[in-house]
Amino acid sequence: MSAFSLSGQTALVTGANTGIGQAIAAALGRAGATVICAGRSSCAETVGMIPGSREMTLDFADPMAARDVFADEKIDILVNNAGIIRRDDAIDFTEADWDEVMDVNLKAVFFTCQAFGKAALARGTGGKIVNIASLLSFQGGIRVPSYTASKHGVAGITKLLANEWAAKGINVNAIAPGYIETNNTEALRADPVRNNAILERIPAGRWGKADDIGETAVFLSSRAANYIHGAVLNVDGGWLAR
Ligand code: NAP
Fold first, then answer.
1. Positive or negative CA dihedral for 131, 137, 142, 144?
2. pLDDT tens digits, residue range 101-120?
3. Which atom of ligand 1 is nearest to the CA of 104?
4. Who has the most CB within 10 Å: 28, 87, 95, 187?
5. Taking the CA atoms of the chain, what radius of gyration do you get in angstroms?
6. What's the 114 CA to ligand 1 centre distance in angstroms?
7. Pick the CATH number of 2-182+209-232 from 3.40.50.720, 3.40.50.150, 3.40.190.10, 3.30.479.20
8. Mind telling me which Gene3D superfamilies this protein's record contains (predicted)?
């Protein structure tokens, strides 16, 4: 069997109703996984794309929402994809915009990993975690202080958890997507000046597609990645190499 096959594995993807999460869920399904599509919105469209998949309501307005999700069922792969962004000048940035982003992008990611880890360690089965980081896990960005802090945090806890769990059979890694065509970036692509400035800086000369991230998630979820721990893998068309 291919080292990239996920046949016999069950995967849970957060924020699977749209964008990168939908593409990840579909790619894991194509690789043979049984996929649980988790979202605060309906994941019916994604479920319709993946034979044998099902949906689960998971709203990280409560960052502890996934606390009981992994206890009753063996889930082998967790993809923490759900994320939000708030934009304002640092000088005007509100506590509400700080807390909301940190809760969804960082606190929920850590405690969802913890719930997954508890169940996997109790069963002795191991597993794979893929967190969705960002270029702003490495760069500062502008007018997105809580997003930048949260995504630096995602890179940090990915390494911390890898250190604690690598020897116990759980691989914890992250993907740092570059500029990807999703709803999230529609406004940037619609602005010809921003669009050109971004494209000129991407060595690959094109925006990323959600599927580019989906296929990388398959790799990090598969046996082919068994010796990869604590990596934050840039999938950015070369952006960070510039
Ligand atoms: P998106 O289309 O806006 O998708 C974000 C997902 O997160 C949606 O499914 C959304 O659900 C979900 N979500 C938001 N708040 C939630 C909550 N409280 N509870 C549960 N789910 C929640 O954006 P995307 O581009 O696909 O982003 C997916 C991930 O990739 C994010 O972590 C983002 O930071 C990261 N990323 C994206 C890019 C890019 O260029 N697009 C680059 C780097 C990193 P709703 O649809 O219900 O809002």
1. positive
2. 999 999 999 999 999 999 99
3. 18
4. 28
5. 17
6. 21
7. 3.40.50.720
8. NAD(P)-binding Rossmann-like Domain
